[in-house]
UniProtKB/TrEMBL annotation:
<feature type="domain" description="Histidine kinase/HSP90-like ATPase">
    <location>
        <begin position="26"/>
        <end position="183"/>
    </location>
</feature>
<comment type="function">
    <text>Molecular chaperone. Has ATPase activity.</text>
</comment>
<dbReference type="InterPro" id="IPR001404">
    <property type="entry name" value="Hsp90_fam"/>
</dbReference>
<comment type="subunit">
    <text>Homodimer.</text>
</comment>
<feature type="binding site">
    <location>
        <position position="79"/>
    </location>
    <ligand>
        <name>ATP</name>
    </ligand>
</feature>
<feature type="binding site">
    <location>
        <position position="33"/>
    </location>
    <ligand>
        <name>ATP</name>
    </ligand>
</feature>
<protein>
    <recommendedName>
        <fullName>Chaperone protein HtpG</fullName>
    </recommendedName>
</protein>
<keyword id="KW-0346">Stress response</keyword>
<keyword id="KW-0547">Nucleotide-binding</keyword>
<dbReference type="InterPro" id="IPR003594">
    <property type="entry name" value="HATPase_dom"/>
</dbReference>
<dbReference type="Pfam" id="PF13589">
    <property type="entry name" value="HATPase_c_3"/>
</dbReference>
<keyword id="KW-0963">Cytoplasm</keyword>
<dbReference type="InterPro" id="IPR037196">
    <property type="entry name" value="HSP90_C"/>
</dbReference>
<feature type="binding site">
    <location>
        <position position="37"/>
    </location>
    <ligand>
        <name>ATP</name>
    </ligand>
</feature>
<feature type="binding site">
    <location>
        <position position="342"/>
    </location>
    <ligand>
        <name>ATP</name>
    </ligand>
</feature>
<dbReference type="GO" id="GO:0005737">
    <property type="term" value="C:cytoplasm"/>
</dbReference>
<feature type="binding site">
    <location>
        <position position="84"/>
    </location>
    <ligand>
        <name>ATP</name>
    </ligand>
</feature>
């Protein structure tokens, strides 16, 4: 056997260090992570065998086995799933491809607070590496379905791992943990004990759709030997198929962690069922935290598709529009073909109907949070508002609902964002438009000369700081019959009729007085500006540059430039 010692990628090494010297107090979750991976591997094998008729594999007894060796103090999680090739092991175990890793590590370095570190790890989720919280050596032996030879991988989590070819390996993956000594102060339980394993599986993995088996000793009676029997530890009930009032919140939470790979509890659960022509069940979740790859093009969508309890695909973009890409969960559609492809799915009538209902339900859920659980709504909007607003650009069907759940910063109250209804209710007599200003941040906008006249008049201005804001305000155009008007564009008319005629007379006087100056400025700046005119919008600044009503704004210009236009 020709083994090799390789180094973990730098990010992986740092993350492993954190796991080895465990900053995460709930060590039990390592088993949830290993079982979750095993379950994914079984789903992948079933799919592969359905897609590829030439793949010669036995899928009749897909299961997960937990094996304990008391004397050696090892715990093995074995599956007969898809397995990995040598290259895959190097790729996915030796490196972390997850976007946001560098960002996470930077944040972790910046904090000295244990609780914050835990929370960060929890938001990120470390998957397989969690094994190093409870083991000082981890051995992974795997053989990919369809391949003849396997791979042996081993590491103590300290910077390097060894990898070697292996023969006589059963198909699938076995992860063996050489357990650290029990240390109750450090929350290291006896993970070789049947009772501990049972508890953890029940608590975190009960809904896993494949059997999780373990051989247990049954003491004999006086005259018989003790016997071992193999038991299935999980109920395997599909959570989404159970009636809502029979599911405990904790069960929803653990299920969420399995589908999302998140370690934190979800913010809200949406459990629905569609009857009639198209039958389906959906169990969706709003996360508590935005994932670090929310704005990365490789960022994945979170809804899995099942057909009658059979896993069909991850990351089903046909079920959720891009602006709800952070929603996680499962949709089980009863009447689809098991072989449906991604491409066909996009055009499938049934899927389109389901998607419309899911979107409406998610938006209704947010609306409900806004009305009844403002704290949760605020968390939601802080984390996901910038993404949800993308929906205002294209999803005309749900535009009204989106405008209802929207909130934005405003000059009305520095601490409290407002919704559009709130703004309209506070509009002054004679004010007919909704004013907004865009910019990089609140301070920049507030210091901009464009704001002066509005401040002087006491008009409220919405302060929009997300790049997407520029686009949706243009696209939406108005709310409740009132035009959305940028403070930086075109002629802004802030006065009542009386004030206007007085101001007009004054302006006329000024125009005569300053005519020479304006002409001179106009020709001196001819290359830079279209026109120099006297303005009523400034109260303290001497001059400002304004765009035409249809010009792109500076922020948008910046955004386009960043996108390479
Ligand atoms: P995640 O599950 O979020 O992708 P993990 O760290 O848990 O992250 O696992 C990393 C990758 O390793 C998985 O995506 C998968 O490709 C591979 N992997 C882990 N465990 C197994 C397994 N039991 N069988 C096959 N592949 C596995
Ligand atoms: Mg995982």
């Amino acid at each position: 056997m020709s083994g090799e010692t390789l180094e973990f990628q730098a990010e992986a090494r740092q993350l492993l260090q954190l796991m080895v010297h465990s900053i995460y107090s709930n060590k039990d979750v390592f088993l949830r992570e290993l079982i979750s991976n095993a379950s994914d591997a079984l789903d992948k094998l079933r799919l592969a065998s359905m897609r590829d008729k030439d793949l010669d594999v036995d899928t009749s007894d897909l299961h997960i086995a937990i094996e304990v060796d008391q004397d050696a103090r090892t715990l093995t999680v074995r599956d007969n799933g898809i397995g990995m090739t040598r290259d895959e092991v190097v790729q996915v175990i030796g490196t972390i491809a997850k976007s946001g890793t560098a960002e996470l590590l930077r944040k972790l370095r910046e904090t000295t607070d244990a609780e914050t570190s835990q929370e960060l790890i929890g938001q990120f989720g470390v998957g397989f590496y969690a094994a190093f919280m409870v083991a000082d050596r981890v051995v992974l032996v795997t053989r990919q379905a369809g391949e003849a030879d396997g791979t042996h991988w081993e590491s103590s989590g300290e910077g390097t791992y060894t990898i070697a070819p292996a023969t006589d390996v059963p198909q699938g993956t076995a992860v063996t943990l050489h357990l650290k000594p029990v240390d109750s102060e450090d929350n290291l339980h006896d993970y070789a004990a049947e009772w501990t394993i049972r508890q953890i599986v029940k608590r975190y993995s009960d809904f896993i759709a494949h059997p999780i088996r373990m051989a247990v000793e049954r003491p004999g009676s006086d005259d018989s030997e003790s016997t071992t029997e193999v038991q299935t530890l999980n109920s395997m009930k599909a959570l989404w198929a159970r009636p809502r009032d029979e599911v405990e919140p904790a069960e929803y939470h653990e299920f969420y962690k399995h589908v999302s790979h998140d370690w934190a509890d979800p913010l809200e659960v949406v459990h629905m069922r569609g009857e009639g022509t198209f039958e389906y069940e959906a169990l969706l979740f709003l996360p508590t935290h935005a994932p670090l790859d929310l704005f990365s093009p490789q960022g994945r969508r979170g809804v899995q598709l099942y057909v009658k309890r059979v896993f069909i695909m991850d990351d089903c973009e046909a079920l959720m529009p891009g602006y709800l890409r952070f929603v996680k969960g499962v949709v089980d559609a009863h009447d689809l073909s098991l072989n449906i492809s991604r491409e066909l799915l996009q055009q499938d009538r049934q899927i389109q109907v389901v998607r419309r209902r899911l979107v409406k339900k998610v938006l209704a859920t947010v609306k409900d949070l806004k009305a009844n659980q403002p704290e949760k709504y605020r968390t939601f909007w802080t984390e996901f508002g910038a993404v949800v607003k993308e929906g205002l650009i294209d999803d005309t069907e749900n535009r009204d609902s989106l405008l209802e759940i929207l909130s934005v910063a405003s000059t009305h109250d520095p601490a409290e964002p407002t919704d559009l209804t709130g703004y309209v209710n506070r509009m002054k007599d004679g004010q007919s438009e909704i004013y907004y200003a865009t910019g990089e941040n609140r301070t920049t906008i507030e210091n901009s000369p464009h704001m002066e006249a509005f401040r002087a008049k006491g008009f409220e201005v919405l302060l929009l700081t997300d790049p997407v804001d520029e686009v949706w305000v243009e696209r939406v155009g108005e709310y409740d019959g009132k035009t959305l008007r940028s403070v930086a564009k075109g002629q802004v008319d802030l006065d009542t009729d009386e004030e206007r005629s007085a101001a007009e007379a004054e302006r006329e006087r000024q125009r005569t007085e300053y005519a020479d100056l304006l002409t001179w400025l106009g020709s001196a700046l001819a290359d830079q500006v279209r026109e120099v005119r006297l303005s009523a919008r400034l109260t303290t600044s001497p001059a400002c540059v304004v765009g035409d009503a249809h010009d792109v704004t500076p922020t948008l210009e910046k955004m386009y430039r960043a996108m390479g236009h």
